[in-house]
UniProtKB/TrEMBL annotation:
The lineage of its organism: Bacteria, Bacillati, Actinomycetota, Actinomycetes, Streptosporangiales. Pfam families: DUF7847. Residues 43-52 have a biased composition (Low complexity). The chain crosses the membrane at residues 127-150, 170-194, 227-256, 262-282, 316-339, 359-389. This is Glycerophosphoryl diester phosphodiesterase membrane domain-containing protein. The keyword Transmembrane helix applies.
Amino acid sequence: MSDGHGRTPETPPGWSAEQPPPYSAPQASPWTAPGSPPQAPYGQPYEPQGEAPQPPPYGPPGPQQPYPQSGYPQPGPGHPPPGYQPPGYGYMPPPALRPGIIPLRPLGLGDILDGTIKLIRSNPKAVLGLSAVAALLSAVPLAVGQAILFGSMGNMLEDPESASASLNSFYGLIAQYGGMFVSYVIQFVVVTVLTGVLTRILGRAVFGGNITAAEAWHLSKGRLPALFGVVGLMAVMMIVPLAVLVLVVAALAMSVNSADGAGLILGVVVLFLLAFVPYYLFITTRFAFAAPAVVLEGRGPIDAMRRSWHLVTGDFWRVLGILLLTSLLVGVVSGVLSVPFSFGGTLIGMLGGGSPGSAVVAAVFIAVGGTLSAMFSYPFQAGVSGLLYADRRMRGEAFDLVLQTAAIEQQRQGWVHASADELWHPSNSARS
């Protein structure tokens, strides 16, 4: 049913179901007989053949009047007439199509950050709701462990010489590190799942379509094993150097005496950290697009990591700079959101005298701060990574042409079909 302007109820404002694709030539009349004179565009008839042209209504043209003499150069082969502008002067290219959160052309830093914010604003229930659940699941164990530690520290401050205070402090440390370990395990699982779901939402949002959290989960759950494979392989790449460091430090501690060994061990640790930081940045940058390749292209873990390596090649430093800037922005905003709650929970836990009530309140404060922080950081980092992936495909594979063609067809139809997800397959690249 139409609303009188050619739109159906599902047609977004400004789109018309009967509107032809832009930039197309006017359609020729299907009733033109073979051999007949061509039809003039926009309904203007041609002159009949064989008749003399009509004279102009204002008489025959007179002789050309010369240009007025002045001190300026007169028009000629090297001097255009006054007021003439050379071709292209002041020309503004038409804006790129933007049916969704980004313009369908290679992206700049501002486009990526703006598109990430629009991703969150365009579908807040799915994006922020899922992020809040994931953040809460990973924040609760850590908050409980820290609250127990703060309670034990309160007992130690009241009577630092008692054996029970030392025992409570030992139990508090175990609770803190145990909660941290559980939190990291949960975070590994929920962040991996969340990355897959948010990437699927982003893939549809590029075309201006919104999907629910349930639909996004249904579309992405089949890719979770491959996604866990990518995250597991990257974790192994990070853990192996740390394991080597532990073995080297243990061997040095057993082979040298305590007086000379401390300085040597400290020097080895410092050198390792200086080498590990570039290694970490290199690995995370080279495989930053593995998760989008798994979810949107349907690749396996090894193939997705190989695909990410290929996409980053030729633009490594730009990708690294944008990822570092994103981490800095996320860190600042997350700190602003979490520090007041964490500070309040710390004071309550330490000054509450170890009472159960103060421990519970401290845990709630710390959990709220961690949830707010992660609820913003998870979708923002996933959005930047996904849009960087789209930008690299547009720059390296002319993928923007594929997106523009699909957007024009969707504009003509007046809605975004679920088959838009299939456009991310590499077989649809213009230079595949």
